[in-house]
Design brief:
There is one protein chain. It contains six helices and 18 strands. By secondary structure, it is of the alpha+beta class. Among the domains are: 92 residues, Tumour Suppressor Smad4 (Sandwich), CATH 2.60.200.20; 86 residues, no CATH class. Strand 7 and strand 8 form a beta hairpin. Helix 1 runs antiparallel to helix 2, helix 2 runs antiparallel to helix 3 and helix 3 runs antiparallel to helix 4.
């Protein structure tokens, strides 16, 4: 998992994308993980690979080229937190990875009356409006968000054994990393987890089914009469779960088996300080890969 800041002279500020995998493709057409639209940028322009804790960028033999710190690269090159990558007029930087809690992001505000009306209808659980909204976004040229809505709806119709489930889930995650968090929260449909009605209870609710509240990242479940908190990372979700809250976890979060299971705040990675619970298969932290030499157990190191 890593983050990329992208800047362009025509944008008011940098845009931040988070990638849950180990490799992304960069190019000018749909299907790439990072789409850069500008004359000279090729359909498949470059790729970035996370390997052995290092980020490596490779230019795919393009005419325009890919530049690292002002120099055009001919071979794969390591990029660091101080590096700047230029592709056309776009500048890419690679900050330390950290997922900010949702309350650090400004709420999404529609800049068109039609969009605002459709988002309000979606908040009121009018599923037809989701289809209309996707069509409207496509008409406006916003192909990424239109595809996100459609792929999400396709996933909701699939069963656990469906052959296309993994492919579509991967595509949804790739799309989500290129779309601002605040908008995703307005239309997302992750399942609700950590519902404490019973130990073997699997909550049938999804984020999109819940009642909106005054806070974008909090919705209310009429079934269990509890608030549900939207989390952008497992770390954030575990903090909510520790306090007994139900959670809905964003599709971009890297996950592992039993990542929201108790105990909470008892087993902590001594490198990244991640609360890892009791569900990792060996002594490697599932978040940063650090070999855990000690474990904090009940407030003491063991």
């Amino acid at each position: 998992m890593f983050a990329v800041h992208v800047e362009h002279p025509d944008w008011p500020g940098p845009r931040r994308f988070v990638y849950p995998g180990h490799e992304i493709s960069i190019g000018a057409v749909a299907g790439n993980d990072l789409i850069l639209l500008e004359a000279g940028i090729e359909r498949r322009h470059a790729r970035i690979l996370l390997k052995d804790g290092k980020l490596i960028i490779e230019d795919l033999k393009t005419e325009l080229g890919t530049h690292v710190n002002g120099r055009r690269i001919r071979w794969p090159a390591v990029v660091r937190q101080t590096s700047h990558v230029r592709i056309g007029s776009y500048t890419l930087a690679f900050p330390p990875f950290a997922v900010e809690p949702l309350d650090k992001h400004d709420p999404y505000v529609a800049d068109h009356p039609t969009e605002d009306s459709l988002l309000r209808a979606i908040a009121n659980r009018d599923e037809t409006s989701r289809i209309v909204y996707a069509d409207w976004l496509e008409q406006q040229g916003d192909l990424l968000r239109a595809e996100f809505l459609r792929v999400q709806d396709e996933l909701l119709e699939m069963r656990p054994g469906d052959a296309e489930l993994v492919v579509q889930a991967s595509r949804l995650g790739a799309l989500a990393t290129q779309i601002d968090v605040a908008w995703r929260v307005r239309v997302a449909s992750p399942g609700v987890e950590r519902c404490g009605l019973a130990l073997d209870f699997r909550c049938p609710m999804e984020w999109s089914m819940l009642q909106a509240t005054q806070r974008d990242g909090v919705r209310h479940c009429a079934g269990c009469q509890k608030d549900v908190y939207y989390a952008l990372s497992v770390e954030e979700a575990r903090k909510y779960a520790k306090d007994g809250h139900c959670v809905a976890l964003d599709v971009t979060s890297a996950r592992w088996h039993g990542d929201l299971a108790a105990p909470f705040a008892e087993r902590v990675c001594d490198s990244c300080t991640m609360d890892i619970g009791d569900a990792y298969p060996d002594r490697e932290c599932p978040h940063c890969g650090n070999v855990i030499e000690s474990e904090m157990v009940m407030g003491r190191f063991a």
